[in-house]
Amino acid sequence: MSKVKFYEGSYIESDSLISQIFSDFNFDFKNKRVFIKPNLLSAHPPEKGVTTHPSIIRAICKYLLDKGAIIKVGDNPSLLSNDAFERIGNITKIKEASLGFYTDITKNYRKIKTRIGELSISSEILDCDILISVPKLKTHILTIFTLAIKNMYGIIVGNQKSQLHYQYPSPMEFSEALIDIYEIRRPDLTIVDGILAMEGQGPSNGNLRELNILIAGDNGYLLEWAIIGYLLDKNPLSIPYLNIAKRKNLFNEKDLIIEGNYKKVKDFKLPSQKINYFLNNILGKNLIKLIYHPFRYQKIKIDKNLCRLCLECVKICPNNALKFESKRIKYNKSLCISCFCCYEACPYSAIKI
Ligand code: SF4
Ligand code: SF4
């Protein structure tokens, strides 16, 4: 059996919420190497709701240090510039919240052989005794949600993340790859920051939604099952990666025990690509593969007034669809594979769908 528990509260109550979570999910942290993996997608301040809130990370660090753990906090973000580690740490305020343990995990990695090829995975993730994943509750224009499973995509170092989009351009194939990556190292505990959530066109440009809730669980699939199915009142099997994981027998919802209080959110807005969601809902697992593709040819647009020519989008684009030419970003639609890596990475929300 696997427990998922809901904790209602606000950021100013982070310390007590986190203490409660660790008393419900019991670990012996003494002298253990504990890695804390927030969602540090890009360089956005906490009030934008793009990254895990620093008050949650600070509360986790304080608790673990008090219990004698040896902690590290970090992520492989989508920004690829040399100053990304410092810039993201400072702007998201995660560096300060990590109490001196904010760690650059992009430098040390090991190659791991998987079904989808050899992947470069941060050594800190592979070597820790206890892995705590702390995603943000957000929608995602490609995968519908980014929660427990998608947060672990950040264990891959450097631009291999965008290369995988190139390798697996359809959302179904990409979702299957997500599962492979999650299975490399399942977190021991996942705490979802749903206090300030994001709906609509997430993960970086959606609308903020105060749900005032943290959700914790030791099985990421069942945690998502509870969040999507119970809290957000959607069909979890219409989310491609959960559908695939279910077919692979990676979880059984009969094992789920739900505890804690939550108010059902009946009007949580999915990305406009929700056509995929409904098609999945109606057509089920096989037909969706055939028809999924045509609905994903949405293209990006760069708002020149917001663009600051930081070139992050150019660096991350896996198919050279973006180039810096004549002092502006040039977009070659025919090369675009609609992976939306640029949309995720842009620190100034200058890219629209
Ligand atoms: S659109 Fe402009 S601001 Fe955004 S990542 Fe590209 S260059 Fe930077
Ligand atoms: S332009 Fe953006 S959406 Fe298109 S392939 Fe490049 S990164 Fe992906």
Name some characteristics of this structure.
Rossmann fold; 13 helices; globular; 353 residues; two-stranded antiparallel ribbon; alpha/beta; 16 strands; 22% strand; ten-stranded mixed β-sheet; single chain; Alpha-Beta Plaits; binds iron/sulfur cluster
What's this model, at a glance?
The protein contains 13 helices and 16 strands. It is α/β, with parallel strands linked by helices and 353 residues long.
Give a written overview of the molecule.
The chain is an alpha/beta fold and 353 residues long. It folds into two domains: 2-293, 3-Layer(aba) Sandwich (Rossmann fold); 297-352, Alpha-Beta Plaits. It is built from 13 helices and 16 strands. Strands 1, 2, 3, 6, 7, 8, 9, 10, 11 and 12 form a ten-stranded mixed sheet that branches. It has a two-stranded antiparallel ribbon with strand order 4-5. Helix 1 (14-24) crosses helix 2 (54-66) and helix 8 (171-184) crosses helix 10. It is globular, with a radius of gyration of 19 Å. It binds iron/sulfur cluster (2 copies). One iron/sulfur cluster (SF4) binds at residues 300, 316-317, 319, 321-322, 336-342.
